[in-house]
Design goal:
The protein is α/β, with parallel strands linked by helices. The protein is built from nine helices and 14 strands. A hairpin with a 2-residue loop joins strand 6 and strand 7.
């Protein structure tokens, strides 16, 4: 009897120990999962003719980080909803047609799916101590209430200045500040209607690029061509001409002539016509490179629009693209929190020959 009781005690003890071990292991796994960053990768897949492939499964994707294969732990098909930050450049360089901007944005929102959420951010001008200052403003938080979004669009105003970089930072720091709910994980997008030429921001592009690289927001740009309009009003009498801001002139010298011994002229009125045109040309080239860089890095795209009347068509193409995106997520096998940049590569299997893929190219690892 004593022997039997002894064995029962031993078995019970082993069972309790095993349960504690299993619970501890589960807790350890949960801690590891929380401390390890889920890397979300939005993906578009098209056939050889550019038509989206819409019925792919998780098994069709293979993902690598810095050349090492990763285990896919999260997958969302093309019918999953998106969260969209809609940034509207309402500065004078967008040809001052506010109604066209509002109508194009309204049509874009209407073409999204019912489950997609949208936030609207635009520029405004404030007059403080007799001086006009441009600022970016979030007019609506993320919502799928189309009436609220329509009301927010009605509040969009023109701006005398382009705080473009500040607006991009607000997308990360305000609109997408909180972690997404499960159904939106890996499915967040910026859609910006702009020429991309910043004039008044406090932030600089390096800060924007770093924030977007960490956030994993897929970036779409409807690039309105305002250069001809701007340069038509740039030359001649400096009092009536369309001016560069001090920030733009400093960015021009800092970016393109950082080590030049040529005397730098920071007063617009002291710039000759040739210098004005060179500054304009370089600033538009810089804007184009920055847009293309953010789009390519995130798996997004730039859609050129000759003017605002073409923006409506471009918006429709963006909406179609958002509706054809997959999301692939994985926990990196590299557990180092070193702040380094890691390259992502996705391969396809079991798809028609000639299929093309566009996806996020990499991300910046977290730091301790």
């Amino acid at each position: 009897m004593r022997l039997k009781l002894f064995f029962l005690v031993v078995i019970f003890s082993l069972g309790v120990s095993a349960n504690f071990y299993a619970q501890d292991k589960k807790n350890d796994d949960e801690v590891l999962r929380i401390d390890t960053q889920l890397v979300d990768v939005p993906v578009v897949v098209t056939d050889k003719n550019g038509k989206p492939l819409l019925d792919l499964k998780q098994s069709n994707f293979i993902i690598y980080e810095d050349g090492k294969k990763q285990d896919i732990s999260d997958f969302a098909a093309t019918n999953a909803p998106f969260e969209v930050a809609l940034l509207l450049d309402t500065s004078g360089s967008t040809r001052s047609d506010l109604q066209l901007i509002q109508r194009a944005a309204e049509n874009f929102i209407a073409s999204l799916r019912p489950g997609d959420k949208v936030s609207i951010i635009a520029f405004r001008s404030d007059r403080i101590s007799g001086k006009t200052n441009a600022a970016s403003e979030v007019l609506s938080s993320l919502t799928n209430d189309r009436n609220k979004l329509k009301s927010a669009l009605a509040d969009v105003k023109m701006s005398f200045g382009t705080p473009y970089y500040d607006g991009l930072l607000q997308v990360v720091e305000k609109i997408f500040r909180e972690k997404p709910k499960d159904e939106f994980r890996g499915r967040r997008a910026l859609v910006a209607l702009t020429d991309g030429v910043d004039s008044t921001s406090v932030a600089d592009f390096a800060e924007v690029r770093e924030e977007f690289g960490q956030a994993g927001i897929v970036s779409y740009f409807i690039q309105v061509d305002t250069r001809e309009f701007f340069e038509e009003n740039l030359l001649g009498d400096c009092e009536s001409a369309m001016r560069f801001s001090q920030a733009q002139i400093r960015r021009y010298y800092r970016t393109f002539y950082p080590k030049s011994n040529v005397e730098k002229v920071y007063s617009f009125c002291n710039l000759g016509d040739f210098e004005r045109l060179d500054i304009s040309k370089k600033l538009y080239e810089l804007a184009d490179a920055q847009m293309q860089g953010l789009a390519k890095m995130s798996g997004g795209k730039v859609f050129p629009a000759a003017d605002l009347s073409e923006a409506r068509v471009a918006f429709a193409r963006v909406a179609q693209e958002i509706g054809t995106k997959y999301s692939v997520g994985y926990y990196s096998s590299n557990e180092k929190r070193d702040g380094g940049y890691r390259k992502i590569k996705i391969e396809l299997k079991g798809v028609p020959a000639g299929a093309q893929i566009r996806a996020r190219e990499g991300y910046t690892a977290p730091t301790n």
